[in-house]
Amino acid sequence: MTDNTAILLIHCPDKQGILAAVTDFINVNKGNILYLDQWVNKEEELFFMRVEWDLGKFEIPREKIEEYFATLIANRFAIKFNLYFKDIKPRMAMFVSKMSHCMYDILARYSSGEWNVEIPVIISNHPDLGHVAEKFGIDFKYFPINKENKDEQEAAEIALLKEYNIDFIVLARYMQILSENFTRSYPNAVINIHHSFLPAFVGAKPYHAAHARGVKLIGATSHYVTADLDAGPIIEQDVAHITHKDTVEALIKKGRDLEKIVLSRGVAKHIEHKVLAYSNRTVVFD
Amino acid sequence: MTDNTAILLIHCPDKQGILAAVTDFINVNKGNILYLDQWVNKEEELFFMRVEWDLGKFEIPREKIEEYFATLIANRFAIKFNLYFKDIKPRMAMFVSKMSHCMYDILARYSSGEWNVEIPVIISNHPDLGHVAEKFGIDFKYFPINKENKDEQEAAEIALLKEYNIDFIVLARYMQILSENFTRSYPNAVINIHHSFLPAFVGAKPYHAAHARGVKLIGATSHYVTADLDAGPIIEQDVAHITHKDTVEALIKKGRDLEKIVLSRGVAKHIEHKVLAYSNRTVVFD
Amino acid sequence: MTDNTAILLIHCPDKQGILAAVTDFINVNKGNILYLDQWVNKEEELFFMRVEWDLGKFEIPREKIEEYFATLIANRFAIKFNLYFKDIKPRMAMFVSKMSHCMYDILARYSSGEWNVEIPVIISNHPDLGHVAEKFGIDFKYFPINKENKDEQEAAEIALLKEYNIDFIVLARYMQILSENFTRSYPNAVINIHHSFLPAFVGAKPYHAAHARGVKLIGATSHYVTADLDAGPIIEQDVAHITHKDTVEALIKKGRDLEKIVLSRGVAKHIEHKVLAYSNRTVVFD
Amino acid sequence: MTDNTAILLIHCPDKQGILAAVTDFINVNKGNILYLDQWVNKEEELFFMRVEWDLGKFEIPREKIEEYFATLIANRFAIKFNLYFKDIKPRMAMFVSKMSHCMYDILARYSSGEWNVEIPVIISNHPDLGHVAEKFGIDFKYFPINKENKDEQEAAEIALLKEYNIDFIVLARYMQILSENFTRSYPNAVINIHHSFLPAFVGAKPYHAAHARGVKLIGATSHYVTADLDAGPIIEQDVAHITHKDTVEALIKKGRDLEKIVLSRGVAKHIEHKVLAYSNRTVVFD
């Protein structure tokens, strides 16, 4: 498998001929299409597409593809697009607090080379998990946060993220709400794991709420963070069956496995540039 | 398998010796225990138990078991209990409106002898599904309901249910809210199917709401109906994965299979006397 | 939703330009594409595609589409294709024996208009389920089969199927193995439900085998029937969790719900022309 | 929650009065029962039970419980039993080869205190994962194995396991078959993860076999290792849905999440003394 590929994520109003125009642009310039998935939202008349092609013999130089595609195709169809290169790894920062299960799951994947990503820094509002970051040789930055210093600390975090050239952030059970200002700085680039099948049990303590309500399933949801708490575009969800025998503690324990898998699935999709968020929903390509 | 069995459903404050006392009561009187399941809610200190035994050689006559058990055991431990005999089939009424999938699923099971139940009557607020009832040779009673006649029609329905000696009611996608008066007349004896993983998307049009929110799972919930809409004790829940490609129509279609299976599972558990509702939750025995 | 649409199922060796050529053929002739899904098997270099378009303004008359497509496109790319029209309902025969759960599930869907199909006849090697066919007003033909008369009876069945213009056959827990001659007459047009997650527990009595092995899951598989028993291309599979408490009888009971849902999902995909079988596997479009 | 508890795992031929006798033994001696689960295999007339009680006020001293229970109860009913104390952590050795996902999942749980276990040593037939063991501060012992030295190396491993007082072994994707002699030394004490839903795809390369067969689900199975390869008692199984689009590489990737979760669930049940193996099957208590 070559890594010398380009990936285009596209969405625009649906019109005849978009698919043909895009594939033609690639074919004519000697790009070999490795993957193509498209979907038309018939209700809202929107066209979505993800295409990946081999750049080995592609005649347009890398640094010109964006310009050429914009000029020749995108402008004609009012296409919004993002262009990625597979050999340029996205850079991720992880935010953690005191629970380590999601953190370990992500670091194990990272460490074994499962993911095409760089994780240069881990940020936390508690010092507790510094030793885990150290195990994996990753910088750990501690930002204690309270009502008084929140603005200031977030500003410092954002400065740090820029210093590390961070593309996206993963909240791995980070127990601190990001300010609207922060989330606006990273649109569709902050992934959170919520420990319920949203929109059930929004807010804190969803396992307690689930237990009190007597549900027979618990869930987890990975989603992009927006200013509206627990209401951002959903990437992945899954559930596990429970019974009356499960105490709140048992739910928390069972939930950990759900949380880490659902978060990691969402992060993997993001890393592979397979998620396209629009009007508070997502298109998740195969 | 003999049908000459008794089934006891028990709950009471947890104390030492309940389990031993109940099993001893059965053993000493020559009952052969076929099934026993018990569970202690440690948080609220409550004891729950379901036991079934062969009456073949049981020395207490059927009609005296309730009295003897109350006197000798239940009073001592403040036990609340229900006694059932397997060879006395519970009598069920089904309420339907215009959608037939849950109705067919239930009638197919009934007709093939899968369930130990009698279904002598089907009630509807629309005439549309009369032909289905007719196919299966079951009485079909049409009660058109509007704001003006609701009290009167419900009174007539309750009179009819008494006439048919109905033990419990199944709302098989019945699109009419029962009055508080009605639901109070059948505590933990009206089973509804809600087409969402409650408590997400309470109320009408949950598939529309799910689509608008962009969830990646749809669900269904069978529960006992209480005066508090969509908030009664949950018996069974399940979900199915969906994607961005699913329109509201696709959700409705996929949802039908969930609804019928989750409702039928809940009804089966009720028929087998394996559900015990308490403080808005259920214990569902294996 | 219009029913005046054409559906093309395509597969061929992968080459540059197929996707563009096919979509261009439709666009240029004023067909509005409603659905398009394609997939390239990179390992075997095979191209697969399903496309559906509105014929409202399509300039090639219906009866000429096959010829034009063959001449202009298919020959060029060595494409094998099947063309269907949505308003021509496929005609299905159902084969049953003594168990009714899959039969009822299919007839309920048929009767409520869920499926775009005609079911003019039900064939059985036992008379038991005639009354179910009668309930739904469908012809029921009884062909008792034993070693001596098998060839003759199958010949009579095939004659009957031709008389009814049957396109495909569904074995709804039909407990009689079809001869190689029979299955060869209906390639990728006989759908069976096997009550295990094939290839585990091939052959008869899979629930007994599953219980003996002590597995923690039971499964069901819908697949096309080939001369090689239980080895044909798989369309759909699903499983349910079980525990040590489940007896063989309990597995059979739980299995019924799996079987009917997995069979009906497979049949629905076939009816929608979304299944493409090749080298003993299937491509199942969304 | 106190850790000063005793856990009894019991099985014996079913007879009237066992349950009462066991609970009475505990009650009379002032043990407070915290957990009780029992099950009767009616087909084979076998009784199974797991009971855990608080030793705080228990009148029989710890070191005498085994003797008293044997004398007073077990002998009477031909009970086979195992007695455990919750505050005595079982000691586990992990065997690994080159794949790290199961190893990391286990070490993350261990490291965060999720499991009541000690893992003093990791054994491998390859040096590759030594750095992971080192991260977590656990001894790593490298035993290269080939046909010639296998007996000798296994003898050395067994000696090492004794030195470390190992109670049970977890094969975390250990790619070397243990000899019959080895597995006999640890009956129901070696847990393996097989990357298929056994008994489908026994042996090596199950993902390749699954892909070739065109199944729509992949699975994983955790089981006790016996002399009969891939045929030991199953503890946990689960599956994930796949499609025709998944290459063998994609199956391997998706399979990793299944493998680690299914193995860890099996190990957790073993650590909690909730698994009882008999005649090649398991009873897994809640």
Give the helix/strand layout.
The structure is a homotetramer of 286-residue chains.
Chain A: E1 5-13, H1 18-28, E2 32-41, E3 46-54, H2 62-77, E4 80-85, E5 91-96, H3 101-111, E6 118-124, H4 130-135, E7 139-142, H5 150-163, E8 168-171, H6 180-185, E9 190-194, H7 206-213, E10 217-224, E11 234-241, H8 248-271, E12 275-278, E13 281-284
Parallel strand pairs in A: 5-6, 5-8, 6-7, 8-9
Antiparallel strand pairs in A: 1-3, 1-4, 2-3, 9-10, 10-11, 12-13
What does the model show?
Four copies of one chain form a homotetramer. Helix content of chain A is 34%, strand content 29%. Chain A is an alpha/beta fold and 286 residues long. In chain A, helix 1 runs antiparallel to helix 2 and helix 3 packs parallel to helix 8. The radius of gyration of chain A is 21 Å and the shape is globular. The model of chain A has no long low-confidence stretch (mean pLDDT 96). At the A-B interface, strand 11 and strand 13 of A face strand 11 and strand 13 of B.
Keywords, separated by commas or semicolons:
alpha/beta, Alpha-Beta Plaits, 8 helices, globular, homotetramer
Largest interface: A-B, 31 and 31 residues
- Quaternary structure annotation: homotetramer
Please give the CATH class of the largest domain in chain A: Alpha Beta
The second-level CATH architecture of the largest domain in chain A is 3-Layer(aba) Sandwich
Fourth-level CATH superfamily of the largest domain in chain A: Formyl transferase, N-terminal domain
Helix content of chain A: 25-40%
Radius of gyration of chain A: 21 Å
| Structural class by sheet pairing and helices of chain A | alpha/beta
How many H/I helical runs of chain A? 8
Are there runs of chain A of 5+ residues with pLDDT below 50, and where? none
